[in-house]
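To whoever picks this up:

The parser on our side crashed when reading a file containing two proteins. I've narrowed it down to the boundary between the first structure block and the second sequence. Both blocks are reproduced below exactly, byte for byte. First block:
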Amino acid sequence: MKRTTLVMVAAAVIMLCAFATPAPAQMVWYSLDKASTAAPAQSVARTTVRQDLVPINTGAGRVYSPASSIPPSGSAGVTAHTDVEVFVPDGFQPDQASPPMNGYGYNTPASIACRYRVMSGTHVAGCNPNAAGLTNASGGSQTIAIVDAYDDPWISDDLNTFDSQFDVTAPPSFQVAYASGTEPAFDTKDDGGWELEESLDVEWAHAMAPGANLVLVEAASNNISDLMAAVTVAGNFVMCSAATCLSGGSGVGEVIMSWGTGEYSGETSYDSYFTTSGAVYFAAAGDAPGVSYPCTSINVVCVGGTTLSKYPGSAPNGNALNNSQEGVWNLTGGGSSLYEPLANGQSVLANTLSALNNGTATLPTGPVEGVGLSTTNRAVPDVSAN
């Protein structure tokens, strides 16, 4: 049973621009393409890996947060935490629940592709996972570089299992790059939480853009300095398809960062890391109220989380059974940065907030969101998705 097929909830991740600091003289990575059977050099017994998860609420199931997603006191600007949670339906253990399942209480690559209209075929109303005619996404032609900490020794095996289970076409190429030049250690202190994040990030980036080349850049640790070194390597892979760009390049693509740290006064000094030519940088808004870095960077697209709700067996208020609604996830991050200035393109938002704050806005019916937010500092998230 592959752990990563269990993940059903996570904050979205991610944004923009590029001066890159020099990378280490020699990078080490291995390529995993359709025909590859390459295995990581580091030998870690899969059966010895623990997934100790802390339940954070109950209901129709249990939502767990791994240790890697719980930032310790004093970690802001020092270490980063993952943005991943795991949902396990009531009556199941984590290694027993595996979609597709009966009912509508989950999503698949095909149902998410339908929701955002990136499917390969005709749109299916409602996009419920058991509906006939759903097809997977078919796009992607450039490079997606995914930055995470520590090593996931089984990422190739997990991606192959994910693709097989959900009938997703294998990527044109998949590489794992070691940002420090040496294979990182496995995340034993967080019981494999970063491994879980890596699998989630790789599998769903691939599911939404199956034609893109994938690069997983593994930082030596979750220290901010190590992660920023990995961000530089990721930008290089997007720009010139290599860990180090000797003469520049013309490549384009995305760098994904599904992790964050609390805001701190020196964060703006790292903004230049997100400015590689041709790369758009995305970061997660987080799994808790408030804001985090690098999502607040003016050079990054900050992505919040949403919830997809499907109607039950009866049709309330005349809505068809196969209908669904998308709303803000109640745990997604958001707000105003303490240190980053208002981003380009947010002047309309600033004017709206100013009108709300001074009472001159024409208010809509219902609750008003945003009163009290800064009109001079960056607001996040920029976009939200499931």
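<<boundary where parser fails>>
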Amino acid sequence: MAPNSGKTRRISAVPNAVSELLRSKSPATGSELLDLESAFAMAPIGMALIDLSGRCLRVNDALCKITGFTHEDLTSIRFVGLRYEPELSAAGEFGEMLLGTRPGSEVERRFRHSTQPFIWVLETLSLVRDAEGGPRYAIAQIQSIAERKQSEDRSTFVSDHDHLTGLHNRRRFEEELAQESDRVMRYGGTAVLLLVDLDNFKEINDSFGHPMGDEVLKRVAELLAHRSRKTDVLARFGGDEFALLLVESGPEQGEAVAQAMVTVVREHPFILAGRNVRVTVSIGVAVIDPKCKDDIFSAADFAMYDAKRAGRDRHATFNPAVDRTQQVSSQMNEAAHVKAAINEGRFVLYCQPIRDLATNTITQHEILLRLREDELAEPLRPAAFLYIAERYGLIQSLDIMVIRQAVELVKRAQKLGRELVLSINLSGKSLGDPTLAMTIEDLITSSRVNPKNLIFELTETAAITNLDQARDFGEMLHNLGCQLALDDFGAGFASFYYL
């Protein structure tokens, strides 16, 4: 109800009036007693009068409705018996009130219910004294907070879980990993981290669309969960990457689980648009032990990269004794190749039309990025260079290059009197780049293009992972007049909660 509702004020005032009248040291008149009787019986929240031994003397209809018990049920038990998990006895609480050390109490707790295991309530207790200040009885006010608790539980689930697969998200996984690492370092033993990455998942999305890609991710999540123990922690890190923490496990068990996961994904039939599609994963295995000096995520990532370079569809285990200089050198050479391609203008944009099915007209185009090695070879898709670009801090330069070219395309179309609307995919890592907003603003100002013709697209996973940055970025786009789109936007409470 609205705060200025008169009905709301009268209802909320009834319990307070009852409490004040019961606490009054002045003798109550007959009229006041009638008012008290009526207010107690008709109060919209549960109320009970409790003697000093803790037994319910009287209860109102609202308390019966909240708990599902009858008046006879409630007045035949001690008040503390309503609590699902009694932390303190009623006598102890009243004793503290008698001594003046506790004026009352207000606690959220679980109450028993006649047809449910328990319900959540807000319990308020206060002591009623006579004219001489001696204790007479206690008054309890009980309000149901079940809906709020359900909402809080959903919010907690949302903050800890991936909306698409229902697995833990990266934030929650990192908390669990930190706790398990602390346990290993303090008490000994080992644990194992597995990083799981789908092979060539970009091609599945491009060929069959994001909805089909989402179905693949959900099915892979189910297959991985089936090969995990209840004590293990499985998470989706975002995109097509998963992580599994095997608690109190050794390297042999880690490799066995990794191989089982590779096999079960490879052998599972994935039918997409009537076609049998082969889906495989590459897994990096890293052992956590008291002697571990490497960053565990980097170690698992190195191992996963080994599996990718060895041909995918397999697992590899990080060996801290192996000199990683050569591997790092190889990756750095690839990074240098990507950087050179940016400087030499070998990245090209393709415009994929987006058609409005209602009007059968093309309303906009999505920018697709490709790397051209030479004039004869087919351009490389993002899977060939995005991993290195993100790992070695080149993705921001790549995003800015794409934005510059996209703005130039819109500018050319504008000069020809054509309306060209472009959707530009951005990496989640670019959200934290303070120069990105300034670059976009400078390009729009200098080119004088219509900012509404630029749509900046983030995956929902990237937006959720960097929620504050995504919110600031969206506000900046709004102020400039540009548009913001969320790619891979799912359905259900989680997605709309973040939206």
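After patching the parser it read the second block fine. The chain has a mean pLDDT of 81. The first strand starts at residue 46 and ends at 50.
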